[in-house]
Amino acid sequence: MARILLIGTYLSVALIGIGVLLMVATGVSPLDAAPPFDPARLASEIVAGDPEGFLWLGIIAVIATPSVRVAASLVGYLRDGERAMAFVSVGILVVIATSVVLAVGLEG
Amino acid sequence: MATGLLMIAGGTAAGAFGSLLGLGGGILIVPLLTLGFGLPLREAVGVSLVSVIATSGAAAGVYLQRHVANLRLGMTLELFTALGALAGALVAFAIPDQVLAGLFAALSLYIAATMLRGRPTDAGAEVVLDDVPTGADGATTLDRMSGPGYRVRNLWPGVGGSLFAGVVSAVLGVGGGIVKVPVMNLVMGVPLRVATATSNLMIGVTASASAIIYLSRGGIDPYVAGPTVLGVFVGATIGSRTAHRVDVRALRLLFAAVLVYTAWQMLGRALG
Hints:
Helix content of chain A is about 80%, strand content about 0%. With about 110 residues, chain A is mainly α.
């Protein structure tokens, strides 16, 4: 659990760090108008070396890391037969999933 | 480039301050971005949420490794902080900017008062036995959440406090620890050190539930989030490694002064 949090956090910040370096290299200011988040363009932005690609990927990784921790906890609790905590873990993941569904609905 | 460096520097200061004083830094990041860089308040809240997730993630990992954070209690309560955060994020975009600024001013003053009063001690954390449903092995629900030397009590008031903490986090871009830590320590009987570590663990899930909504509503600017998150993360790392060398009392006074000034500025915005 601890390792997931640490690895996820450092990986996310590293991606964001690459994005910031690319901002400097391409002369992008933090106050410039940023393109909106578009998952469909993420891969092409990263391949093209656009700073927003790495920044969005890092931001998503930051947001996703706690949920990955909860999912790992769920696996652990199921393996140990701790049903109550497994339910709690499922509940948390349902709330996060609801957030994602509502977010997609709001975007559309 | 100058703006980016200033943002990184500001984020570093916010992260260091927050780390040294046991806060997530959100209470400084939001006014830094709005008052310092002219960012709309809601976007500042969105960036702050990403920042506090990043800083709490690293710290929470260490707390778990050292078995300081109470994972069972933290996960039970974060179910409710996440619910509160989701509700808060949905409502946040309907709140007028002036009301948001007023709420932020109130929170800043509350935290400043807390800083000046000093940290709560463990004197209020009595150990009390409650009647709760018993599991098949004889251990109660609260038994399983308790830790060495303390027994968790008053779970439902804790749940209520967690819901409120989630709403505060989502609306104002803070981690919510200012609500969660006193609730766990003074109401639920959890030692302060454990409450702080557990609250830190909970910030990630709490803030991510609302950050997803902010992301979809265009409330997170990647060009601002990048330098800010980087700065806050570096600052929090420096803060955690130098805490033992710093006179926290002097920092508290300085921090309280900064918060009062921030509250004054935010109040000005609220009153238009």
